[in-house]
């Protein structure tokens, strides 16, 4: 009967409001604590109630963790009939479906376990709302994971709603659990428990939380933003921790206000962040240009989603690299980070604050819905701690904010610190920061601003290379959220011809990148329509891109489709 | 010598006779008479001829984007509440391009001062209608005259409860100075609508016109009466001057946010709190 490798994909589908996120959160916590390697990602419709959403949880061993979206489903728990239809295209011969048979179209499904989710929910709590706790119980029962940890979890989560609610949820869980154990026995499903070592020091983080932690670690003390999915989470995270972490949180009336408030705060010495998505960022662009000319640091997080305009508000895409790269009129230096793992997100955010302050420029963090919502564990020792030095000086009388210097960096003073006056101007200005129309001064200031790019390039992060990089003739490149999906695809193909290269900083590129690529054949994998990073590589390095693997449907890449794409490359080559 | 005078000769970009000249002197006098130190004063401005004001005052300056002097001023104040922060620009900048910020800064009520040079015309872009231009006024973009109604900034400010609202005519230097001082000293958000004529592009709303079409509210006028202020604000025949509304009971945004006197640049890293945050995700 069903045999499982150390890699299981569990998908739970249901309507918004049915509590699949509660099941996800509970399972991730319980399975992690039980010592499994865990990863979760989700997809959802743009509505508050109803629709059809799903979460995928991958169970693997800690030693060989699987941390990317797979199309394959081993166990599907459908909380309602639309969920089954929504996910039918992913149901294969190996999928065991748990759903209510009377309400489902079981045609063509090889293994269907009639699961009385609603009946148990009504019995346990008198409301269909308890179906998610039943489902949680069934899953734990099938996997033979002691239900005690789940009971404790439910007690903790629901305690503020009262003892009655806790009891009903636990009863629902138990009913599901007994059913799950019974089913595993009856259907001869055996899931080997491959929990290896229990790692107490692991943190369970989604991309949003990792970025938030990185912001605090990076010394962020000011955020003004306007809600826009999927960028809002970072604002909510900082708002939640604002009091104890001493962070000023302002909900702006619009994105224009947000970035201008951020620049005002930064001018006065704060470490300021704004978070948004593409559409909201469009409104901020003049502010980016302002940051460029007044040399005032700002960190901008863009949680990408498919555009143009409103596009697919709850879906994922990497379509705004060019937007970040070219945002704002006029020419000025900038840096763009694109983390692909929670550890990279924490470090990337800290680095963004340091780079912004050290070079007095706007710095971008590009993420996307898939990344922000994906949850995985990270060892607490992987939480980077960089400097939080603000790179500001105490001013003297006669202080010149834009003093011309060999490296283009003018010592940055802030109002109130020292005896100098700090004048910044969106007009072209002289060294004192006052308006000028002198062409000579204009040239001096343009050159000064761009001199910083040399040091910025030298300090740029090197990409992460893996899988026989030195010998492989073909390098497959990812940036941002595609790191783990590509790593898994390349790892599974196991071809000596292929190696991977992941960029967590996409601009400017470190000079070493040219040498790394050498004469290798280049494939670029991007979650967008045109291959924006491929274009950037061509432009910056003059390389030739032999293949662009692109997707802009609003979904992330699955491991399977990358394997298919790369197989094509390997076969057409031979 | 005024400590807010520029230390060197400055080429001022305004036209001879511009209403901004007397205002510049009044502002510097007001700051000096309040005993302000240039090192504690920041002027945040937008774009336009009015927004050039901080270029000619020896204090900290943030000459930012068109329409955005208010959010910038707020950011500065929240990062360092010890600073005296003034947002200053023209009617096009604050009532037009940045109109949304005026509405929402009122809801927050930070301790900043907004000075709006209201000349009822766009000067720097050469004579187009501004949000306060009188209906019917001919201009390059509406050759047959403006066909939309002007905004009433005092009524708008009252409706969103900006806790200090005044209007002055720069032609009356003594009263202007007195009211700018009150606005700067006011603990909370203050707005002063300043009649300051554009002598090149507005041949209607001149020094003379402002003098003839305005009057000072009487000595016994009670600015704490919001309904009375609304009645004054809706007058159109002659426009009322003076402190039109004052509400000393509103809490500051800084206080509601729990911001202390320590500027953010002196903030210590919250190590214990950070460890606590991390521990929450174990």
Task: Summarize the entry for a quick read.
Chain A has 18 helices and 21 strands.
Count of β-strands of chain B: 8
- Write down the domain tally of chain A: 4
Strand runs of chain A, count: 21
Shape of chain B: globular
By CATH's scheme, which homologous superfamily of chain B applies? Thiamin diphosphate (ThDP)-binding fold, Pyr/PP domains
Strand order of the largest sheet of chain B: 2-1-3-4-6-5-8-7
Q: What is the makeup of the main sheet of chain A?
A: 7 strands, mixed
The main pleated sheet of chain B reads as: 8 strands, mixed
Please report the distance between the alpha carbons of the first and last residues of chain A.
Answer: 38 Å
Helical run tally of chain B: 10
Uncertain runs of chain B are: none
Order of helices and strands of chain B: HEEHEHHEHEHEHEHEHH
CATH architecture verdict of the largest domain in chain A: 3-Layer(aba) Sandwich
Please tell me how large the radius of gyration of chain B is. Answer: 20 Å
Structural class of chain B: alpha/beta
* Unreliable stretches covering 5 or more consecutive residues of chain A: none
In total, how many domains does the architecture of chain B comprise?
1
- Average residue pLDDT of chain A: 95
Name some characteristics of this structure.
heterodimer, A: alpha/beta, Pyruvate-ferredoxin Oxidoreductase, domain 3, Rossmann fold, 4 domains, 6-stranded mixed beta sheet, 21 strands, B: 282 residues, 8-stranded mixed beta sheet, 10 helices, 32% helix, 16% strand
Task: Describe, in plain words, how this protein is organized in 3D.
The complex is a heterodimer of chains A (about 575) and B (about 280). With about 575 residues, chain A is of the alpha/beta class. Chain A folds into 4 domains: about 5-185, Pyruvate-ferredoxin Oxidoreductase, domain 3; about 205-380, Rossmann fold (3-Layer(aba) Sandwich), CATH 3.40.50.970; about 390-460, no CATH class; about 465-574, Rossmann fold. In chain A, about 40% of the residues lie in helices and about 20% in strands. Chain A has helices at about 20-35, 80-85, 115-125, 130-140, 150-160, 165-185, 205-215, 230-245, 255-265, 280-295, 320-325, 340-360, 370-375, 440-460, 485-495, 510-515, 530-540, 560-574; strands at about 5-15, 35-45, 50-60, 75-80, 95-100, 110-115, 200-205, 220-225, 250, 270-275, 300-305, 335, 360-370, 375-380, 425, 465, 475-480, 500-505, 505, 520-525, 545-550. In chain A, the strands form 4 sheets. Chain A has a 7-stranded mixed β-sheet with strand order 9-8-10-11-13-12-19, sandwiched between helices. In chain A, strands 2-3-1-4-5-6 form a 6-stranded mixed β-sheet, sandwiched between helices. In chain A, strand 12 (about 335), helix 12 and strand 13 (about 360-370) form a beta-alpha-beta unit. In chain A, helix 9 (about 255-265) packs parallel to helix 10 (about 280-295) and helix 15 crosses helix 18 (about 560-574). The model of chain A has no long low-confidence stretch (mean pLDDT about 95). By secondary structure, chain B is an alpha/beta fold. The model of chain B has no long low-confidence stretch (mean pLDDT about 95). Chain B has 10 helices and 8 strands. Chain B is globular and about 70 Å long. In chain B, helix 8 (about 225-235) links the parallel strand 7 (about 215) and strand 8. Chain B has a single domain (about 20-280), classed as Rossmann fold (3-Layer(aba) Sandwich). In chain B, helix 1 packs across helix 6. Chain B has helices at about 20-35, 70-80, 90-95, 100-110, 155-160, 175-185, 205-210, 225-235, 255, 270-280; strands at about 40-45, 60-65, 85-90, 115-120, 165-170, 190-195, 215, 240-245. In chain B, strands 2-1-3-4-6-5-8-7 form an 8-stranded mixed β-sheet, with helices on both faces. At the A-B interface, strand 7, helix 7, helix 8, strand 9 and helix 9 of A face strand 2, helix 2, helix 4 and helix 10 of B. Strand 15 of chain A pairs parallel with strand 2 (about 60-65) of chain B, so a sheet runs across the interface.
């Amino acid at each position: 009967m069903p045999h499982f490798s150390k890699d299981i994909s569990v998908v739970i589908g249901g309507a918004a409001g049915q509590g699949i996120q509660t099941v996800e959160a509970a399972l991730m916590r319980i399975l992690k604590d039980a010592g499994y390697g865990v990863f979760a990602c989700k997809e959802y419709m743009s509505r508050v109630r109803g629709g059809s959403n799903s979460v995928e949880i991958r169970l693997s061993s800690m030693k060989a963790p699987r941390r990317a979206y797979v199309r394959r489903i081993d166990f599907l728990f459908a909380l309602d009939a639309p969920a089954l239809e929504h996910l039918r295209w992913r149901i294969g011969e190996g999928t065991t479906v748990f759903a209510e048979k009377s309400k489902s179209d079981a045609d063509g499904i090889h293994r269907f376990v009639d699961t009385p989710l609603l009946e148990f929910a009504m019995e346990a709590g008198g409301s269909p709302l308890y179906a998610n706790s039943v489902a949680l119980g069934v899953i734990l029962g099938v996997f033979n994971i002691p239900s005690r940890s789940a009971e404790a979890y439910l007690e903790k989560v629901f305690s503020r709603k009262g003892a009655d609610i806790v009891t009903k949820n636990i009863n629902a869980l138990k009913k599901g659990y007994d059913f799950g154990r019974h089913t595993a026995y009856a259907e001869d499903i055996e899931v080997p428990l491959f929990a290896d070592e229990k790692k107490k020091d692991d943190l369970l983080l989604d991309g949003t939380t990792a970025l938030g932690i990185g912001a605090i670690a990076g010394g962020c003390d000011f955020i003004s933003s306007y809600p826009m999915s999927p960028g809002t989470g970072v604002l909510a995270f900082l708002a939640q921790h604002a009091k104890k972490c001493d962070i000023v949180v302002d909900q702006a009336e619009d994105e224009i206000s947000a970035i201008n408030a951020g620049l005002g705060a930064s001018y006065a010495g704060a470490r300021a962040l704004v978070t948004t998505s593409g559409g909201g960022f469009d409104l901020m662009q003049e502010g980016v240009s302002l940051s460029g000319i007044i040399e005032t640091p700002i960190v901008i997080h863009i949680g990408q989603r498919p555009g143009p305009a409103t596009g697919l508000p709850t879906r994922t895409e990497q379509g705004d690299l060019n937007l970040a790269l070219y945002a704002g009129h006029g020419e000025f230096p900038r840096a763009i980070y694109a983390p692909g793992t929670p550890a990279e997100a924490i470090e990337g955010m800290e680095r963004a604050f340091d780079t912004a302050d050290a070079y007095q420029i706007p710095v971008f963090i590009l993420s996307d819905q898939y990344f922000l919502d994906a949850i995985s564990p990270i060892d607490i020792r992987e939480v980077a701690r960089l400097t939080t030095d603000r790179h500001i000086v105490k001013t003297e009388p006669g202080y010149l904010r834009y003093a011309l210097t060999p490296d283009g960096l003018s010592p940055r003073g802030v109002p109130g610190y020292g005896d100098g006056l700090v004048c910044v101007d969106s007009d072209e200005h002289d060294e004192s920061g006052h308006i000028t129309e002198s062409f000579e001064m204009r040239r001096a200031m343009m050159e000064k601003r761009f001199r910083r790019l040399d040091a910025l390039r030298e300090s740029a992060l090197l990409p992460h290379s893996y899988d026989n990089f030195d010998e492989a003739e073909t390098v497959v490149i990812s940036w941002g959220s595609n790191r783990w999906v590509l790593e898994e695809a390349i790892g599974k193909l196991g071809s000596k011809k292929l190696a991977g290269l992941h960029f967590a900083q996409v601009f400017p590129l470190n000079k070493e990148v040219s040498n790394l690529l050498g004469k290798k054949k280049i494939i670029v994998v991007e979650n967008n329509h045109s291959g924006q990073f491929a274009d950037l590589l061509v432009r910056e390095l003059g390389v030739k891109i032999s293949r662009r693997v692109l997707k802009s449907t609003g979904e992330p890449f699955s491991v399977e489709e990358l394997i298919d794409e790369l197989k094509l490359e390997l076969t057409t080559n031979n | 010598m005024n400590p807010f005078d520029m230390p060197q000769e400055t080429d001022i970009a305004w036209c001879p006779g511009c209403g901004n000249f007397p205002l510049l002197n009044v502002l510097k006098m007001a700051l000096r008479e309040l005993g302000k130190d240039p090192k504690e004063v920041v002027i945040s401005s937008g774009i336009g001829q009015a927004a050039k004001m901080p270029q000619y005052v020896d204090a900290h300056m943030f000459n930012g984007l068109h329409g955005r002097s208010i959010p910038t001023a707020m950011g500065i104040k929240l990062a360092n509440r010890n600073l005296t922060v003034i947002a200053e620009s023209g009617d096009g900048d604050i009532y037009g391009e940045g109109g949304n910020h005026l509405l929402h800064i009122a809801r927050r009520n930070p301790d900043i001062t907004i000075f709006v040079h209201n000349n009822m015309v766009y000067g720097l872009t050469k004579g187009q209608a501004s949000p306060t231009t009188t209906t019917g006024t001919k201009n390059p973009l509406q050759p047959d005259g403006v066909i939309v109604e002007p905004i009433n900034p005092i009524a708008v400010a009252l409706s969103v409860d900006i806790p200090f609202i005044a209007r002055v005519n720069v032609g009356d230097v003594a009263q202007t100075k007195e009211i700018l001082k009150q606005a700067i000293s006011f603990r909370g958000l203050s707005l002063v609508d300043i009649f300051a004529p554009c002598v090149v592009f507005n041949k209607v709303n001149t020094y003379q016109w402002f003098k003839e079409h305005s009057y000072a509210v009487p000595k016994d006028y009670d600015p704490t009466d919001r309904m009375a202020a609304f009645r004054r604000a809706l007058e159109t025949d002659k426009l009322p001057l003076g402190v039109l509304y004052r509400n000393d009971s509103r809490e500051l945004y800084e206080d509601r946010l729990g911001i202390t006197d320590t500027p953010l640049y002196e903030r210590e890293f919250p190590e214990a709190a950070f460890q606590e945050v991390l521990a929450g995700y174990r």
